[in-house]
Amino acid sequence: MTRNLILKKSKELFLEKGYSETSLSEIARACNISKGGIYHHFERKEDLYIETMISILEENGKAVISSIENETRFENAIFEAIEQAIIIRTKYINNYNKDCEKTAYFGPVSDAIKKFPEIWEFNNNIYKNAIDTLVNKIILAQETGEVKKELDPYSVAFHFCSIFEGIHLVSYYTNQKFEDKSRLVISSFWELIKN
């Protein structure tokens, strides 16, 4: 119970303030425990941070990948994946990074991926899993006639992931709403690959 509370409060604080600006004393106060109570569960601040950030990436990755896996048709899968991206982005802007609307910076999660090799590796594995899931879904969609057979499934999956990651920047640079731009870009992508 205490460990889960520590992870919950550290998530809130790390996302709001980042790694360097968040102290273990501050997390302990938020949990209403002593700093020693944190050390009972985590040897170092770095360990707590890594576990916290990995849990965020895992939660988000599962939401997107399961939306792709659960849909029967590929068209529905890509649109559901974008809806999940919208939900995730909205959750983090509303709860943690209110200035995100004014910037292309993704905050502490991006910092974590760059700074800690364990987090980068975990994120890399999420992407490998997502691409593999997409490739399998595309092959199935080609077999059923939903997607053009002449397209390379890996390239289509990579394009989708590039769009998925790049929509935030496109909406920022064109000064358009993320949700609207996301749906528009995925609609265009679908028109290009559908049979």
UniProtKB/TrEMBL annotation:
Keyword DNA-binding: yes
Signal peptide coordinates: none
Taxonomic lineage from the root: Archaea, Methanobacteriati, Methanobacteriota, Methanomada group, Methanococci
Record keywords, A-Z: DNA-binding, Transcription, Transcription regulation
Descriptive protein name: AcrR family transcriptional regulator
Pfam families (alphabetical): TetR_N
Gene Ontology terms, MF aspect: DNA binding
Source organism, top-level taxon: Archaea
Chain residues forming the annotated DNA-binding region: 23-42
Coiled coil: none
Location of the HTH tetR-type domain: 1-60
